[in-house]
Design goal:
By secondary structure, this protein is of the alpha/beta class. It has 2 domains: 116 residues, Rossmann fold (3-Layer(aba) Sandwich), CATH 3.40.50; 125 residues, Hypothetical Protein Tm841, Chain: A,domain 3. It has a 4-stranded parallel β-sheet with strand order 2-1-6-7, with helices on both faces. Helix 3 crosses helix 4 and helix 5 runs antiparallel to helix 6. It starts with a strand and ends with a strand. The protein binds myristic acid (MYR). Myristic acid (MYR) binds next to strand 5, helix 5, strand 8, helix 11 and strand 13. The site of myristic acid has 22 residues, from strand 5, helix 5, strand 8, helix 11 and strand 13. It comes from Sutcliffiella rhizosphaerae. Keywords: Lipid-binding.
Length: 280
């Protein structure tokens, strides 16, 4: 059984890792004024935050066109017996629904679309697990079984420097964002039922980071094998330092460092920080 694994750019899986695991990626877009750029292809993280500073217009984002999904699925159908397509949370983007609609238009193969209910490298963890299983010849049903099991242990908490980006993009309810910015809190955010909601309102960045680390410790101190990722919005040194600190404290956890790329960075703003993990 040969199963193709597809994801979208917001998993931010480095290109070498994608190539190594035969992962196919469909990009979302960042729009500055009238210009649309496919992230990870036409605009990369190295230039994005600089571009935001230099541009008068704040960027917006869009999901891939359905035609792009159809084209990719039809091409893969010539080489693979089935497709598992893993995407960012359906509560924050229409990408998942686009993939489902495209899958229904393709008759040549079975397309199984999976809603990760999250994004960034935590979505990437789903993709890596799926790719490892596909390489072992596992069926789409077996792969989806494992992905659903992963949902039981995956956790992700993140914080932003400025809630107005999330509010402007409509990915957090206005009332919550207004209260948040008025009080100048640094709420810890997380996903509930595919959507972003505040987990706890915390006054300072330092305390918010500590709260996230305490939440991580609750799981990591159980000493079971885990994968975890520190994700930063253009704060690589801070992310690297945190990863090193965690690696020393939790040698049984496999840590990654990743970033909020252009599309997610548009909605979170510079300076966001997140930690995600799951039990292997
Ligand atoms: C689109 O235009 O379809 C893309 C919309 C992306 C919204 C992103 C909202 C922030 C997601 C934060 C993920 C944090 C994971 C730890």
């Amino acid at each position: 059984m040969k199963t193709a694994i597809v994801t979208d750019s917001t998993a931010y899986i480095p290109v070498e890792l994608r190539a190594k695991h035969d992962i196919h990626m469909i990009p979302l877009n960042v729009i500055f004024g009238n210009e649309s750029y496919q992230e990870e292809v036409e605009i990369k993280i190295e230039h994005f935050y600089e571009e935001v500073k230099n541009n008068r217009d704040l960027p917006s984002t869009s999901q891939p066109a359905i035609g792009e999904f159809v084209e990719l699925y039809e091409r893969l159908a010539k080489e693979y017996d089935a497709i598992v397509s893993i995407h960012l949370s359906s509560g924050i983007s229409g990408t998942y629904q686009g993939a489902v609609a495209a899958g229904e238009m393709v008759d040549e193969t079975d397309v199984h679309v999976f809603d990760s209910e999250i994004s960034c490298m935590i979505q990437g963890f789903y993709v890596l697990e799926a790719a490892e299983m596909a390489a072992e010849g596992k069926s789409p049903e077996e792969i989806l079984g494992r992905l659903n099991q992963m949902k039981e242990s995956d956790r992700a908490y993140f914080m932003v420097d400025d809630l107005s980006h999330l509010q402007r993009g409509g990915r957090l309810s206005s009332a919550q964002a207004i209260v948040g910015s008025l009080l100048q809190v640094k709420p810890v955010l997380h996903f509930v039922d595919t959507k972003i909601v505040p987990f706890e309102k915390i006054r300072t960045r330092k305390k918010a980071v500590k709260r996230i680390l305490d939440l991580f410790d609750e799981d990591a101190s159980q000493q079971v094998p885990m994968r975890a990722v520190v994700i930063h919005g253009n704060r690589e040194a801070e992310g690297e330092e945190l990863k090193k600190e965690l690696e020393q404290k939790y040698p049984h956890v496999e840590f990654y460092l990743s970033y909020f790329g252009p599309v997610i960075g548009t909605h979170l703003g510079e300076g966001a920080l997140g930690l995600g993990w799951y039990k292997r």
